[in-house]
Amino acid sequence: MNNAPIGIFDSGMGGLSVWQEIAEALPDESLIFFGDGARCPYGDRSHDEILQFTIESVARLLDEGCKMIVIACNTATAVAIEYLRQCYPDTPFVGLEPAVKPAALTTKSGTIAVLATARALEGELFLHTSAQFADSVNILKAVGEGFVEIVERGEEYSAEAETAVRSVIEPLIEKGADKIVLGCTHYPFLRPTMERVIGDRDVEVIDSGRAVCRRVAQLLDEYDLRAEQGSEPLYEFMTLGDDDYFDRMIYRAYGCIGEEEAEDDEQTDN
After folding, report:
1. pLDDT at 209 over 80
2. How far, in Å, CA of 190 to CA of 220, rounded?
3. Annotated catalytic, 256?
4. Which of 40, 66, 184, 213 is catalytic?
5. How does pLDDT run across 62-94, given as a tens digit for each residue?
6. Of 40, 66, 73, 213, which residue is the catalytic one?
7. Are 64 and 7 in contact (CB under 8 A)?
8. Contact between 15 and 42 (Cβ < 8 Å)
9. E-state strands within 184-257
10. What is the pLDDT of residue 257?
11. Which of 46-60, 128-142, 243-257 has the highest mean pLDDT?
12. For residue 50, which of 28, 83, 19 has the smallest C-alpha distance?
C-alpha cells in the first residue's frame, strides 16, 4: 500500500479529461495535476522543446513525491515517454496514444479517422499502431486546428467551436469514416459539439480516457502502489500559467468531479 499521489501532466487543461476518469474510478487515490498552461499548446512546437518541457514538468511532480506519472498529453507521450522511462526506471509511467485498435476492430465502413495534433500523428506509437491495421482499414488523419486553444479559453460551446469542429469533422464523415478517434486530451471537452455536428449519422467518437485509467489501475496493482482503501484523497493542482489560468483550471477540474466533491477538497498549489 502506498498513499503517495499519482502525478498527471498535460500541456494545459486537456489532461483534466483523464484526471476526471482517474478521480472517478480510483476514489482512494490522491492526485497532483500539473497543467503547464504558459507554453500550451505543444502540438506545433519542436521535438526538443516538447521533450524539455515534459522533462521539467515530470521532475516537479517527482519532487512532490508522486508514485506514478500519467502523461495526459498525446503530444508529450509521442515525444518523451520512452526517454522518461529510461531516466526513471523505478517509476511507472502511463502515456496516451490514439485508440486506433478499438476503432479498427469495430468499424463497419472500413474507414476510421484519427483527430490529433500534428506532432502526435508523427509519433512512433501512433505510426506503429496504425501500421498494424493499415491492411484492414483505411485510416484518415486530421489535425484539430484551433481545438486546443478553444478549450484552453473555455469556449467549447461557442459558435467558433462549432465552426471549427464542423470544418474538420464533416470532411471525415464525407470520406466514409464511421469512427472518429480523439488523439488529444483537450478534444474530449469538444465532444458534445462534435456529437451535435454528427447528429443522427452512424458515427462514433472514441477517446482513450478509460483505457488509460484501466492501465493506471493495472500498474498500481503490479507495483503494489494502491492507496489504502477508504483513504481520503487530496487533489492538488500546479501550473506555470498566471493566477487567472490557475483559477480557470480549478473551476474546470471541480466541474468535472462535481460540486459536492469540490466542497470536500480545497487542497491546491501553484
Report:
1. yes
2. 30
3. no
4. 184
5. 999 999 999 999 999 999 999 999 999 999 999
6. 73
7. yes
8. no
9. 204-206, 235-239
10. 53
11. 46-60
12. 83
